[in-house]
Specification:
Blueprint: E1 5-10, H1 11-25, E2 29-32, H2 34-38, H3 42-49, E3 55-60, H4 63-72, E4 82-84, H5 90-98, E5 103-105, E6 120-123, H6 135-147, E7 151-155, H7 167-182, H8 184-190, E8 193-195, H9 199-209, E9 241-253, E10 258-259, E11 265-266, E12 271-276, E13 293-296, E14 299-304, E15 312-315, E16 328-332, H10 341-348, H11 352-357, E17 364-368
Parallel strand pairs: 1-17, 2-3, 3-4, 5-6, 6-7, 7-8
Antiparallel strand pairs: 1-9, 9-12, 9-16, 10-11, 12-15, 13-14, 14-15
The structure holds pyridoxal-5'-phosphate.
Residues 32, 34, 85, 157, 198-199, 220-223 line the site of pyridoxal-5'-phosphate (PLP).
Length: 369
């Protein structure tokens, strides 16, 4: 059956972003593909990214996502590492290690749960206070992992690399830097990966991070890999996703009649409208009703009335071309007249992260050039 809505991911845009970010960071990428690859389709993004030389590996947030990444890349000759950011349950550990998945170690207690052959990235809490081994335990745990031949990486995470006040990031940097220096022998002998930056870290602290010793070897930009950087910063990133919805019905609403629930919109004149097959259950936020518009045949078409669960009504009266069922409207994406996901996020009053990750499961995911 035909999809009502499709989220296309542009290979060219992905590749452009990977290259821009890798150049900026000066190292290959450990690409976050958590949350369905920020809504873009985990399996297909994993499959594409794993074939790119600038990608060292992929990062997910849970064991289930790791399995999806493995599935998406099953037919590739060359497999690259997959790291899980959060600690697995002890009952999951053996299978994950058997599958070659890299594990994050976030507390000394987890040392006892590691099977032989485990490849472990030591996560250090330098001030995010979410996950990670405490600073006071980090060196001891790092030495233990190295002794067991399990130290595959060491990393930390910025809590506020997008904050103009860099004092907290400086503290995090200093703590991480001291631990790296103390563990330099273990890191070098284990050839462990060193990584610290998310999107904001790559875009704001590229220079600074390149001074860490032992040197940073990877960067983990998520949002920017999908084409969205910091709102106030010029970076030659290309939005990856174009979200389209199909017209399922066309009608004329007579002057004075209303459209949709709660009769939010009244036709000032006889108005040609179309129904498109996307609603708030598919990720088009209901509270953008009255603000958002979509693009159809190179014309911007306002959404009329309240966005419904599965569909919404658009004003096509300005469209010059004939409007037919089966035509595709662009809800956001790579098209000059369409809004991008950041614009939608502004209308909805949410972060771009939320906009992308909330694209629903009914929306088809496809790659395009
Ligand atoms: C999600 C995540 C990232 C990526 O963050 P962005 O802000 O999307 O670049 C990097 N590292 C960790 C540990 C994460 O959880």
């Amino acid at each position: 059956m035909l999809p009502r809505a499709i989220a296309f991911s542009s290979r060219q845009a992905l590749l452009n972003n990977f290259r821009v970010l890798s150049r900026k960071a000066g190292v290959p990428l450990l690409l976050p593909i958590k949350a369905n690859a920020y809504g873009h389709g985990l399996e297909q993004i994993a499959h594409f990214a794993m074939q790119q030389p600038v990608i060292w590996g992929l990062a997910v947030s849970s064991p289930r996502e790791a399995l999806r990444a493995l599935k998406g890349t099953a037919n590739l000759d060359q497999r690259k590492p997959i790291l899980i950011f959060t600690p697995p349950d002890p009952s999951e550990m053996q299978s994950l290690v058997g599958l070659g998945v890299h594990i994050s170690l976030t507390s000394p207690h987890e040392l006892g749960e590691l099977p032989e052959q485990a490849k472990v990235h030591l996560k250090i809490d330098t001030g995010m206070n979410r996950l990670g081994v405490k600073v006071t335990d980090a060196v001891q745990v790092g030495r233990e992992l190295a002794k067991r031949g399990m130290l595959a990486g060491i990393y930390s995470h910025f809590s506020s690399a997008d904050d103009p006040d860099i004092s907290h990031s400086q503290k995090q940097y200093q703590i991480f830097s001291d631990i790296l220096l103390t563990l330099h022998k273990e890191i070098e002998e284990s050839q462990a990966q060193v990584h610290f930056s998310n999107t904001a870290g790559v875009l704001n602290y590229g220079r600074w991070l390149s001074q860490l010793r032992p040197a940073v070897t990877l960067a983990r930009p998520g949002l920017s890999s999908y084409g969205y950087g910091l709102p106030d910063q010029e970076a030659p990133l290309s939005p990856v996703m174009t979200l389209k919805a199909r017209i399922t019905s066309v009608r004329t609403v007579p002057a004075g009649e209303t459209v949709g629930y709660s009769r939010l919109w009244t036709a000032p004149k006889d108005t040609k409208v179309a129904v498109i097959g996307i609603g708030y259950a598919d990720g088009l936020p209901r509270n953008t009703s009255g603000k958002a518009s979509v693009m159809l045949h190179n014309t911007s078409c306002p959404i009329l009335g309240f966005i419904c669960m599965d569909q919404c009504v658009i004003d096509v009266s300005e469209v010059k071309a004939e409007v037919q069922t089966g035509d595709w409207a662009t809800v956001w994406g790579r098209s000059p007249l369409a809004p991008d996901a950041m614009q939608l996020a502004k209308w909805a009053g949410v972060a771009t992260y939320e906009m992308l990750t909330k694209v629903g499961e009914r929306v088809d995911r496809q790659m395009e050039d």
